Amino acid sequence: MVWGGISTRLRTPLYHVVGNLTGVHYQNEILQPLVVPALQAIGPRAILQDDNAPPHRSAAVNTFIQQARVNRMLWPANSPDLNPIEHMWDELCRRVQQHHPPPTNLGQVLQWLQQEWNGVPRAFICNLIHSMRQRCVECLANNGGHTRY
Known about the structure:
The chain is mainly alpha-helical.
């Protein structure tokens, strides 16, 4: 598993998650070194959009988020997944699958993932993020059901 963050202004490096992601691991290996500096670089209006995965909502992470003064988007339980990062993962997967021959080891997979992550055009990422408003409009219009996204 890898973790990464995107915004219209920057993207974090990919982080290879070894084993199960826990709240403590998420806080110490992702939030502190990657997310908080990225949000600070974006500016005071930056908002963290994560999901309701248990590591993201642990008590330790919630406390850290408050202490670090991170603006976090509220994400209701059992909500449709409208997060643009999901489409970024799809694009990344398509790009890596175009490599021939296929990777032969984990190191090669991680190298190609980082290379392709860095190669996704900024315009593609901006389009994903700027589509959020329309994603939400369509989701509401479909009573939370399927959208074209």
